[in-house]
């Protein structure tokens, strides 16, 4: 019997006792657990893995950035479960990792819009992962804010201008390449936005987005400043997705002028 087998059996028992409705695997579950669960209990099984799939509503695969710390992973799983109405605020779910078993109670102040998790492609996920690290770590002891605009590069460029010579010109740096992370974090200290292709190539940084919010009918939470208006606005003007990191540590993802996710890794959820 492997460790995951042992933990899985215990997790089913814990779920039964605390009346949890969802069991989350942060690691590949044993095949028998899947079968046993789907026949013997009314638990929903969510497996965090590389593909998103809701074909079987009692056995879901959820794709979130793979290299997050446990707390951020569980927070994003919570957002997904709330979005799917699988748990309500105050309810708990049981999770199994490769060497741990735990219970997480879901709080309400994490916002994810319907469909976010099914849409987020790998480039957006990767930037979310980098934004989470930047939010937690800051840079040289200071909190920093930044903005990534992904996809529809031609149209994004039409609505922007460079504030400095493009440091990425002539370099083929891709956000999906593990080695690019430190470079991105370093250039995130520049004013302005990164422009990134839908395949992950960094086209430029230090870009000012020319967005006039009048007439765009953006529906944003109150109190957001110019970075966030530009982030939401560019996604209304183009087909791009924007990932903003506020100096306060909050990460927001926008598409079609709407906010799809709001998460602050520095906060306790
Ligand atoms: N149109 C824009 N295009 C690109 N970057 C922008 C734009 N507007 C603002 N920024 C960037 O956002 C930074 C912060 O601006 P501001 O404080 O108004 O935004 P904010 O939305 O309140 O963000 P934060 O929550 O981080 O303070 C600016 O210094 C600039 O680097």
Describe this structure in words.
Its cofactor is Mn(2+). Diadenylate cyclase that catalyzes the condensation of 2 ATP molecules into cyclic di-AMP (c-di-AMP). c-di-AMP is a second messenger for intracellular signal transduction involved in the control of important regulatory processes such as osmoregulation. Keywords: ATP-binding, Manganese, Nucleotide-binding, Nucleotidyltransferase, Transferase. 32% of the residues lie in helices and 25% in strands. By secondary structure, the chain is an alpha/beta fold. The strands form two sheets. Strands 7-14-13-12-8-10-11-9 form an eight-stranded mixed sheet, with helices on both faces. Strands 3-4-2-1-5-6 form a six-stranded mixed sheet, sandwiched between helices. The protein is elongated and about 60 Å long. The chain is built from eight helices and 14 strands. It folds into two domains: 111 residues, Pyruvate Kinase, Chain: A, domain 1, CATH 3.40.1380.20; 143 residues, YojJ-like (1. The site of adenosine-5'-triphosphate (ATP) has 17 residues, from strand 11 and helix 8.
